[in-house]
Write a structure and sequence with these properties.
Shape: globular
Helix content: 40-55%
Number of domains: 1
Structural class: alpha/beta
Bound molecules: thiamine diphosphate, magnesium ion
CATH class: Alpha Beta
Number of strands: 7
Order of helices and strands: HHEHHHEHEEEEHEHHH
CATH architecture: 3-Layer(aba) Sandwich
CATH topology: Rossmann fold
Length: 333
Amino acid sequence: MTENRHDKLGLSDQKVLEMYETMLLARRIDERMWLLNRAGKIAFVVSCQGQEAAQVGAAFALDREKDYVLPYYRDMGVVLTFGMTPKELMLSGFAKAEDPNSGSRQMPGHFGQKKNRIVTGSSPVTTQVPHAVGIALAGKMVRKNLVTFVTFGEGSSNQGDFHEGANFAGVHKLPVIFMCENNKYAISVPIEKQLACEKVSDRAIGYGMPGVTVDGNDPLDVYKAVKEAADRGRRGEGPTLVETVSYRLTPHSSDDDDRTYRAPDEVAKAKTEDPIITFGAYLKETGVMNDELENEINERVMKLVNEATDYAENAPYSAPEDALKYVYAETEE
Ligand SMILES: Cc1ncc(C[n+]2csc(CCOP(=O)(O)OP(=O)(O)O)c2C)c(N)n1
Ligand SMILES: [Mg+2]
């Protein structure tokens, strides 16, 4: 029998099943979006596939009532955990008026929802990092005891925004969790052409914070690291850099052909470590899930995905004149 690791982390069987269901939901929404894209129904997809364990494991370690998340475009697992619904994600995919992220102005993947403290990001990568640092500073000034959680790819860890944000957070001991989702590629550029140091987490020491690298295919490993980082932040001890190592299982986006820069057997090998499969196997080996429960979860997830697809496909587009809104304050005639 596989050792029960979640118990030791204070996670009940119910909680790890919720984690698994959220990971599966993210995966199935993403897969549906690809089908819709190839069918010509939605314009663009940028995937979470392969990173669900890192995203869901991390988000479960945060306080969903008060912490702020500043996700990057792949973080479907983070935003689902923080309360965005499959319908809302599909509305964004179909670019419909009711999309809460941007009212259909932004491309999918630009997550933002005030009521769930999901802070919207910009298309230039890594701009969310200094935003997270600023919100952590504000939270500290008003003594909210909140932490901010910001994610970015390993390629993005080369941007100035990361270094400036990390430095400021380190100097001022701000409660920020910097989580780098290392998926081994920045579009076509492999990791060895992106970094001269061995690990992204090696960069932490330069900013006076701890840096850890964990298995991004294991939601429990990620949960543990992010929980420790959140506790540290709330105790006033400052930021932490967490690097989760996984693999991007899809092309960079629906507009990319990854066969031009990586070998099919490399992708096939990564698929054997797919976190949906390995975490599902862990739950079975520890007796938390059986075939019957797995089928039940699958059916529940597919029902949500189907309902979300139908709802969003039939929802109205924005009125053309709506494009003129939210740039300047509106005045009375
Ligand atoms: C400042 C900036 N430069 C370039 C781009 C184009 N771009 C979008 S995603 C991306 C790759 C980012 O790689 P990584 O940070 O590893 O994230 P991943 O997509 O692998 O999750 C690039 C270069 C951009 N959006 N912003
Ligand atoms: Mg990457």
